[in-house]
Amino acid sequence: MAPTPTEFLPSSLDSFPSIPFFRSKSSRSENLSVPLSRQKEGKLVLKNKAPRWHEQLQCWCLNFRGRVTVASVKNFQLVASEENGPAGQEHDKVILQFGKVGKDLFTMDYRYPISAFQAFAICLSSFDTKIACE
Known about the structure:
CATH architecture of the domain at 44-129: Alpha-Beta Barrel
Radius of gyration: 20 Å
CATH class of the domain at 44-129: Alpha Beta
Helix content: 10-25%
Number of strands: 6
CATH topology of the domain at 44-129: Tubby Protein, Chain A
CATH superfamily of the domain at 44-129: Tubby Protein, Chain A
Strand content: 15-25%
Structural class: alpha+beta
Distance between the termini: 36 Å
C-alpha cells in the first residue's frame, strides 16, 4: 500500500507558484525556484530487466514466476535503474511486469512506487511500438 493523501489543505494549494504555458521556454525556466539538481532526486528511472540465457531451451528468458504463459515480444519486466540510489541497493526487484497469457489476454503486475494508472499507461504504450512485430 502506498501512502496517499486523501485531502489537500487550501493553504498548501496556494503555496505552489503557477507557471503559464504561454511563456517562452527561457523565461519559464528562470521562474522555477527548485534547482535542477534537486528535481532529479525525485525521479524514478526504470529499465528493462536483462534476460538470462536458458541452456536447455537455447533462448533468452525472463522469470515471470508462472504469471506469463505465452511467449511474446510484448512481454517485459521493469526494474529500478542503478541511477535511483546508492550502490548496493537491490535493483533486481521487479516493479512492473506485463505479459501475454492468451490470444488476446494479458496480465499486468506492479508495485510501489508506481500507481495502477502509471503501470497501465506504460503497458498500453508497449502496444504502440510493437504492433507489427509478431
